[in-house]
Design brief:
Layout: H1 3-21, H2 25-29, E1 37-42, H3 49-53, E2 60-65, H4 75-87, E3 92-98, H5 102-107, H6 115-129, H7 131-135, H8 140-160, H9 163-172, E4 176-182, E5 189-195
Parallel strand pairs: 1-2, 1-3, 3-4
Antiparallel strand pairs: 4-5
The chain binds zinc ion.
């Protein structure tokens, strides 16, 4: 079978299994969404948000890009954040990075990936800012892991510092902002930090 056909066949099986569990599953799903969580993760194929967290359709509002970035000037990410916070009224925003992130590794090197280099400049800046701390680590894999964590913390700071979140914190004391990292070698998520309304 052609590989893409496998996806369509798997979709039919998935629909059937959902209907067996709950005959009204799609009727209910089509009536609207009230997810409690916004997930901001990496586009990497190995970190599927719903699978990692056991979430069902309707439970996670998801934004993924290379390097799980929320740059202060990125209209795409900020539009997602605004919609999730102001309209869906999510209670939690989760920024999730992962060890072994190719985007982060590339930002540590001088490469030529065209447009992607401009996007990853957000992480390269972080790398330069923390150069002296990173230089104390023994090998590249440790520096890579550390930069993955620093990047998640920076994106949490960007989310927490946004006008969108400040407004929601002042008016409704939500959302909590979480920084997590997924360890691809074990599958486990690690909590780095949680920011509560100031
Ligand atoms: Zn990645």
């Amino acid at each position: 079978m052609l590989t893409y056909r496998k996806l369509l066949a798997a979709n039919k099986e998935w629909v059937q299994s959902k209907l067996e569990q709950r005959p009204d599953f799609f009727k209910e799903l089509s009536q609207g969404q009230r997810p409690e969580f916004l997930w901001i993760g990496c586009a990497d194929s190995r970190v599927p948000a719903e699978d990692l967290t056991g979430c069902q359709p309707g439970e996670l509002f998801v934004h993924r890009n290379v390097g799980n970035l929320v740059p202060e000037s990125d209209v795409n990410a900020l539009s997602v954040l605004q919609f999730a916070v102001e309209h869906l009224k999510v209670k939690h925003v989760i920024v999730c990075g992962h060890y072994g992130c190719g985007g982060v590794l590339h930002a540590m090197k001088h490469g030529d990936l065209g447009l992607l280099d401009a996007w990853l400049a957000n992480i390269r800046t972080l790398y330069v800012e923390h150069a002296s701390e990173l230089a104390t680590l023994d090998d590249e894999s440790q520096r890579w892991d550390r930069l993955v964590e620093l990047n998640v913390r920076r994106q949490v700071r960007n989310v927490a510092g946004s006008a969108i979140v400040h407004k929601a914190w002042n008016e409704e004391q939500r959302p909590l902002i979480h920084g997590w990292v997924c360890d691809l070698k074990t599958g486990y998520l690690k909590e780095l930090e949680t920011r509560t309304p100031e």
